[in-house]
Amino acid sequence: MSAEMLEIIKKRRSIRKFTEEEVSDQNLDEILKAGLLAPSSKNKKPVEFIVVKDRETIKKLKDCKSMGTIGLDTAPVVIAVIADSETSDVWVEDASIAATMMQLVAENLSLGSVWIQMRCRQSTNGDSEAAVREVLNIPEKYGVSCLLAIGHKAEERAPYKDEDADFNRVHKETY
Ligand SMILES: Cc1cc2nc3c(=O)[nH]c(=O)nc-3n(C[C@H](O)[C@H](O)[C@H](O)COP(=O)(O)O)c2cc1C
Fold first, then answer.
1. Residue 105 sits in which domain range?
2. Which residues of the chain form beta strands (DSSP E)?
3. What gap in Å lies between CA 133 and CA 91, rounded to an integer?
4. Which pLDDT band, with edges at 50, 70 and 90, does 3 fall under?
5. Using a 6 Å cutoff on CB, does residue 116 contact ligand 1?
6. Which residue, of 1, 27, 73, 114, has the fewest CB within 10 Å?
7. Residue 85 domain-assigned?
8. Mutational test site, ligand 1, from 9, 17, 78, 117, max ligand atoms within 8 Å of CB
9. Tens digits of per-residue pLDDT, 33-53?
């Protein structure tokens, strides 16, 4: 991996406050390209994306989950990362890889992003995934991995340092 790539990985932090500036269509396309070109098991490409800019819809998405949705308050764009669970038995992994690659491209464009988990989460009205499906009219067979809140950063977060990489979590040859 080039030093440049590692710098982007270190700079990427979860950003939950965004300015009012819109994300350009060109930047949005680059982020989506990263998701569309992400690897998938057996190359089945089960992952799809729903781009949401409408503030009323974003408010409804916030109501789909009880906690951890601050990033939706100011995000000018939200991308729902969904995947066809009938096409792939490992759609969760496929969707996670796509979302992560999109966050790295966002950082490379100096944009902020945060992953907002929907799978296995609840709102006061029940299952978050089901609620997102209803708000965005997503067919039942699609799993909802996460919502990516994306925008221009309105908060600064320190990049990771090399020392933050805890090599105690690395085992050699056996555990
Ligand atoms: C699977 C997953 C689920 C997450 N869910 C949420 C969430 O629902 N809301 C949120 O604000 N951040 C969420 N995050 C962001 C984490 O809180 C964040 O990555 C972690 O605290 C480390 O901070 P960093 O992203 O700045 O390195 C999630 C991250 C991952 C990978």
1. 14-155
2. 47-52, 77-84, 111-117, 122-123, 126-127, 142-152
3. 16
4. low
5. yes
6. 1
7. yes
8. 117
9. 999 999 999 999 999 999 999
Q: How far is Cα 66 from Cα 125, in angstroms, rounded to an integer?
A: 9
Do the Cβ atoms of 99 and 115 come closer than 8 Å?
Answer: yes
**Distance between CA atoms of residues 53 and 24, nearest Å:** 12
* C-alpha distances out from residue 12 to 3, 34, 40, 137, 148, Å: 14, 15, 23, 31, 14
**Closest to 147 (Cα-Cα) out of 64, 87, 28, 55:** 64
**CA 144 to centroid of ligand 1, rounded, Å:** 16
Average pLDDT, the chain: 97
In a domain, 5, yes or no: no
Question: Which position has the token pair 């009938």?
Answer: 86
Is 163 within the bounds of a domain? no
- DSSP-assigned beta bridge partners for residue 107: none
Domain count of the chain? Answer: 1
In a domain, 161, yes or no: no
pLDDT at 27 over 80: yes
| pLDDT at position 175 | 98
Give the confidence band of 125 by pLDDT, cuts at 50, 70, 90.
confident
Assess whether the C-beta atom of 103 lies below 6 angstroms from ligand 1.
Answer: no
The CB of 122 under 6 Å from ligand 1? The reply is: no
8-state DSSP, 169: G
CATH code, 95: 3.40.109.10
